[in-house]
Design brief:
Apple domain-containing protein; 463 residues; 5 helices; Hepatocyte Growth Factor; six-stranded antiparallel β-sheet; disordered C terminus; signal; disordered N terminus; 14% helix
Amino acid sequence: MMAIIVRGVVVLAGAAVVVGSSAVDIPSAGLEVRQDANSACPPSYSTRNGMNFTTYCNQNNPFNDAMEPFLVGTMQECMDRCSRYWGADEGCFGIVWREDQNCWIRNSSVTLDTLEPDQGIHFAMVEAKDMEPLDTDCPAADLSTHTLDTSGDDIGYTLHCGKDISGDFDSCWDGFPCFGLDYLDGKFRSFYHATSVEDCLHNCIKEHPLCRAVVYNPDLKMGFANCWLKDGFKDFLSPGPNDKRILHSAAITNLDRIDTTCPTDTKYTSQNKAQFDIQCGQTSSGTNLTSVHRQNITSCMDACANSDRGCVGVIFDSTLQDGFRNCYLQNTTNVLSKEPSATYAALSGTSSASPGQGGNNPSTPSSSSSSKAWIAGPVVGGILAIAILAAAIIWWRRRKAKTAALEGYATAPPYSPYHGAQMQAAPSELGGDTARELAATEHKPVKYAHGGSTGEAPQELPT
């Protein structure tokens, strides 16, 4: 990489950043971290998947490229890409970000000995402990079966030691931005870091749509994002002779039984006396607080009633197609729409609108008094004017403010039984890799009961 000094005004995230012209001296032996008032270079940074960086602002570290440079808006995004980088036989060990938005990924040969002053160019080194190989031994015998510890839920999996999963079972997941094969040759598709096969599986079961298997790379030759989620599985194959990575796979083969029937009674009273109205074959576009796993609609409503986060309704997905966490707790009610695989329930007294109407707004009887209407007109008009002005101010402030945060890390995504089809509309910056829609899993019904466990035998999922 050529050392180019950037001076003058640099446009970054919609704001002007003035870059000074004075150089910064490199510290002597025993390098100390250099920080300055330049907001383009943060004092330190931890990525969303747990990789940690030490930053050296206005200091370049040329050479040792892992790939060709590419454009990202901020230094933080460059470090995020590093945490997801998948190389041929090693991951990312550092980055250089220049204020014209060029990002360089550094390989394992990078060292602090080659730092040199360069205004407007910033280096970040991955903390050494983050890229140390983990225990590479397979945790149990090949093809052995186990139960994942998930607080009472029955999730069985089969271990495949030294094996990779063949076939196109990659997907876009709601927990992180999706980068497809056509974005920089697919080098940033993975996200999660795990310290064991079971840790990797825990990442799997919290994702949407339904994750069915994982590939785990303990020696980190895949990179820091060493936990690869799969939306299906078929063949488990040993890596090729030129593949230096150690891989272990696990396939989820048993899940607890989910009740697919809807109650005949349209009313339900929870254990703490909260009353719900049940609507079969309906879903709501309200705002989700979180999602949890439940075996039936009654235990899903109980979860809402026991929540301290203002839950007013739930969507229950009996197919698990959108994910293992199939009970969506909502803090707003909104427009209802038909969905045969879903059941919607709201606390009695909350308002849900049918398609074409607004939600959360109970109707108000009209007044026949002309004098009251004459008074209400200016009052309502004034309130609307104030609301519009306040919204305009908030919008302007948000537009003006800079942000280095990545988008797309929703904690509770909207429920959709056609999740894969929706992911085809990828964000413009991201690759076009689309999620594969899974076939609905067959489930035998179980009796409705309070709580999340029925004591029924786990069901075997189709391969």
